[in-house]
Automatic annotation (TrEMBL):
Record-level GO BP terms: alanyl-tRNA aminoacylation
Lineage of the organism: Eukaryota, Metazoa, Spiralia, Lophotrochozoa, Platyhelminthes
Domain Threonyl/alanyl tRNA synthetase SAD: 18-76
Protein name: AA_TRNA_LIGASE_II_ALA domain-containing protein
GO molecular function, one term: aminoacyl-tRNA deacylase activity
Organism: Mesocestoides corti (Flatworm)
SUPFAM superfamilies for the chain: ThrRS/AlaRS common domain (SSF55186)
Alphabetized Pfam families for the sequence: tRNA_SAD
């Protein structure tokens, strides 16, 4: 049976025989009324999975909403045990993030020193990274409604971090262009240093704004070389030598071809005259196989060895 009024989508491929979902009446009623100016009927080709009983579906979870154009929205859903696991996992993750956020909020309201505020900020940064990891996963791993809720939590985390930065800036009289949280983290990291003087401090560090980071590290100005990495980028700071030369030397020691990765050395642009760009360089991981995500963390020992061996 061919019905010209049934809505077809150009991007979909249909078999010769399809089922039709009718809203507002059966297909014959729609066929008679579809051209009426006041018609509220709709007939769409059904692309869903058909079962003998609705109970066989177990659960149905919307995992995505896509826009084809301004008029057409496409809902993406999963069903079955996979959907039930996705819903349960999403609820568990939301509860975990919510509980941690509440605990940090309570600690923040009671914080009466810059050190306590820094602890709250570090907890928020860690929670933010966890939330980013959850929302950045496969679409089917998280229900759409839970993904939206996590997005609201992430905005709340950003607002709290902004409040903490302002509070720390006032307590420590930190300059406007310097990030007081980064300054606190850098000083804490250097204070807790347990390596011998001939070794290089190599640590993960949350670098989301490179300009702020550069101004912050020059404000602290460590007396020894330091390497801080975040995801695919490792920033090298040397108080006396050209960091680009150091980074190029470290790159020669590193061989990550077995991991499908290459290296790119980048000079750090000068932020302002008080922050000479030649003291900083970036050693960036570049994928050779089109990998979407790469991180220095699995290659920490190689990075540490190479920057120590190439130290000017």
């Amino acid at each position: 049976m061919q019905k010209s009024f049934v809505k077809r989508f150009a991007w979909e491929s249909y078999p010769q025989l399809v089922r039709v979902v009718c809203i507002g009446g059966d297909i014959e009623t729609i066929g008679r009324s579809i051209d009426s100016p006041s018609s509220l009927y709709s007939a769409e080709l059904c692309g869903g999975t058909h079962v003998h009983q609705t109970n066989d579906l177990v659960d149905v979870v919307i995992v995505g909403l896509r826009s084809r154009n301004q008029a057409v929205k496409e809902f993406v859903a999963i069903s079955g045990e996979h959907a039930a696991r996705s819903r349960s996992c999403g609820q568990q993750m939301l509860s975990e993030v919510s509980n941690k956020l509440d605990a940090i909020q309570e600690a923040y309201t009671q914080a009466d020193s810059a050190d306590k505020l820094l602890v709250c900020a570090e907890d928020l940064i860690s929670l933010q990274s966890h939330a980013d990891l959850l929302t950045g996963g496969s679409e089917e791993e998280l229900p759409f409604v839970h993904r939206c809720t996590l997005g609201r939590y992430q905005k709340h985390i950003q607002r709290m971090l902004g409040e903490i930065r302002n509070a720390m800036r006032k307590l420590n009289d930190t300059p406007a262009l310097v990030d007081p949280v980064m300054v606190g983290q850098l000083r804490k990291l250097l204070k807790e240093r347990t390596l011998p003087p001939t070794s290089v401090v190599v640590e993960p560090f949350n670098i989301t704004n490179y300009k702020k980071f550069a101004q912050s590290i020059f404000y602290v100005f460590p007396r020894e070389p330091i390497v801080l990495f975040h995801k695919a980028s490792a920033v090298l700071f040397h108080p006396q030598a050209k960091a680009v030369d150091w980074a190029n030397g470290a790159a020669r020691w590193l061989d990550l071809s077995d991991s499908g990765l290459d290296l790119r050395v980048e000079a750090f642009k000068e932020v302002d005259p008080s922050c000479p760009g030649n003291r900083l360089a970036i050693l960036r991981l570049v994928s050779l196989k089109g990998q979407r995500q790469h991180d220095w963390q699995p290659h920490f020992s190689k990075l540490s060895h190479s920057v120590t061996a190439a130290l000017p």
